[in-house]
Amino acid sequence: MTATERGVGLADQSADAETMLAWFRRMRESEPVSHDEQAGVWHVFRHSDVERMLAEPGTFSSDFSAFMPAQKDVDRFLKGNLLRKDPPQHRKLRTLVSKAFTPAMVARLAPRIEVITDELLDARAGAEQIELIADLAYLLPVTVIAELLGIPAGDRPMFGRWADSLVAPESQTSFIPNEERTKAMAIVMREMNAYCLEHIRDRRARPGDDLASKLVAAEVDGQRLDDEEIIGFVGLLLLAGHITTTALLSNVVLCLDEFPHVAAELRADISALPGTLEEVLRFRTPLAPSMRRTTTDVRIGDHTVPAGKIVLGWLASANRDERRFAEPDRFDIRRTPNPHLSFGHGIHFCLGAPLARLEVRIAVEKMLARWSDISVGEGVEHHDARGIVGAKRLPLHVRWA
Ligand code: HEM
Fold it and tell me: Closest ligand 1 atom, CA of 148?
């Protein structure tokens, strides 16, 4: 029986979140480690197995270069992409970029994020119909990343266009490296590489207080990042930090619409917001799968996965595993502990998690303060839930306070 016959397959056109959750539930029970012959990958569904996959980089590698045809522009881009690196290269890159991308630097961004959010909301002042994605959720993360890097305001639309091209086409299968996808990405990356290179050279000559300047200056044990590594990291910030944050913000609004008592509770006591965001992250996991390559034959549950295979660890399934969470299908903003895997686990744990949490917290606080009533309207469009769980169009009716 193939995964498609069981209900969902990677070769299908797309799937919605409900279909995926039903599939996960079935698979966690009946086939927690499953070979998908059609897509040529393995699926892992239980929390303990997914967590282990993320915790053992020696067995589950993040380097997929063997699956990708050599492409000069993509190779340059991959050099600094720590998400696709294994130890020891990962450690070197992560230590260096962590020196520049510190929690303190992120915390200092708060006033700017407030201003950007206010400007975006002001642009729609008084409007009763809002399209959350176009009006706020899409622009906020890309503007923050551009600002963080010191990209001049005039160049930001171009920056946004690259972010779009890199995350689209957004079907799940595009997560799996293939020749067609690599070629399409190479075109965007060439343009982006040239721009970033110039930006980095400019920062070397005239350092400022931005992340690009700090990346240029970062040094650990006499090691520094070269230009190509910085370009790759900038590209990764765009790829990893954009659509996921947009999706999370849309998921908060969808959850508050589905559970109005939580919206009322937050309006009465905003201190419940951080716990609510963690539960939204668990309940509607923005990045549904995480991908690895087996370096050796490995036993997972009752199966031996051969070496050299792509394994999809379903974060969205792990986050609903009844073995790990009591009443996993209940939305509970006071759930403690809440060991969701939405930001990953282990050495690749999301570097941008503090930034994502900060952006979304500020945006939700401002939405609740400005809009005394928020309800989801007609015409919601979702991403393909095999990749991203979140809305790509989210019309809202709002009443201004
Ligand atoms: C809600 C929003 C976000 C979600 C759900 C998310 C999710 C994730 C996940 C699951 C991983 C690990 C993937 C794996 O191990 O295969 C990851 C890694 C990463 N994320 Fe995020 N992310 C978000 C926002 C951001 C932001 C805002 C940034 C930066 C601006 C960012 C930068 C990164 C980077 C650089 C890595 C790679 C870390 C490494 O390989 O060491 N992310 N993210």
Answer: 30
318 lines ligand 1 (CB under 6 A): no
Q: Cβ(290) to ligand 1 under 6 A?
A: yes
d(CA 370, CA 401): 5
Q: Determine which residue's CA is closest to atom 3 belonging to ligand 1.
A: 244
Q: Are 225 and 92 in contact (CB under 8 A)?
A: no
Q: Which atom of ligand 1 lies at the shortest distance from residue 345's CA?
A: 15
> From residue 181, how far is each of 113, 168, 172, 174, 186 by CA, in Å?
33, 10, 12, 7, 9
Tell me the residue range of the domain where 46 lies: 17-400
Ligand 1 atom with minimal separation from the 93 CA? 41
Residue 223 included in any domain:
yes
Domain count, the chain: 1
The CATH number of the domain holding residue 339 is 1.10.630.10
pLDDT in tens, the chain (401 residues): 444 445 566 656 678 999 999 999 999 999 999 999 888 899 999 999 999 999 999 999 999 888 776 666 666 667 888 999 999 999 999 999 998 889 999 999 999 999 999 999 999 999 999 999 999 999 999 899 988 888 888 888 887 788 777 765 443 444 555 667 677 777 888 888 889 899 999 999 999 989 999 999 988 888 888 888 888 888 888 878 888 999 999 999 999 999 999 999 999 999 999 999 999 999 999 999 999 999 999 999 999 999 999 999 999 999 999 999 999 999 999 999 999 999 999 999 999 999 999 999 999 999 999 999 999 999 999 999 999 999 999 999 999 99
C-beta atoms surrounding 286 within 10 Å: 25
Ligand 1 neighbour 241 (Cβ under 6 A): yes
Ligand 1 within 6 A of 287 CB? yes
Residue located nearest, by CA, to atom 11 of ligand 1: 350
Is the distance from the beta carbon of residue 34 to the nearest atom of ligand 1 less than 6 Å?
A: no
Decide: residue 265, CB within 10 A, 0-12 exposed, 13-18 middle, 19+ buried.
middle
8: in domain: no
For residue 359, the ligand 1 atom closest to its alpha carbon is 27
Residue 41, phi-psi category: left (phi > 0), alpha (psi -120 to 50), beta (remainder): beta
Q: 7 in a domain, yes or no? A: no
